[in-house]
Write a structure and sequence with these properties.
- By secondary structure, the chain is mainly α.
- It has one domain.
- The chain has three helices and no strands.
- The chain is elongated and about 80 Å long.
């Protein structure tokens, strides 16, 4: 009779850990998606304000599409490994630097 309450208590103790482990992959993709959205907004605002020429904006959009393709490929199996996440974040870092550099240069739309 004592084993049943023990088993139930053990299951209740393990359940949150399982849920946390499953949601950690989702959190990583959420952060990646949020950053993609932020970078997209930076490109759009730069294009609207004239800080980016149409050619620069198109080049930056192409870079964003490349990062999105990397994420889609990594998520094909339903999980995002730490290695895949780091690779995507490095690509986002690279694109972020490009966006900053292009918005800060002297090329302007008149």
């Amino acid at each position: 009779m004592k084993t049943k309450p023990t088993i139930i208590a053990l299951m209740l103790a393990v359940l949150p850990a399982v849920a946390l482990a499953q949601s950690s992959g989702t959190t990583s993709t959420l952060r990646i998606d949020q950053r993609q959205e932020t970078q997209q907004k930076l490109i759009e605002s730069g294009a609207q304000s004239g800080q980016l020429t149409p050619k620069e904006a198109a080049r930056l959009q192409k870079g964003q599409a490349k990062v999105q393709k990397m994420e889609d490929k990594a998520m094909k199996d339903g999980t995002l490994t730490d290695k895949e996440r780091r690779r995507i974040q490095r690509a986002q870092d690279k694109e972020d630097r490009k966006i900053f550099r292009e918005k800060s240069n002297k090329h302007r739309v008149q």
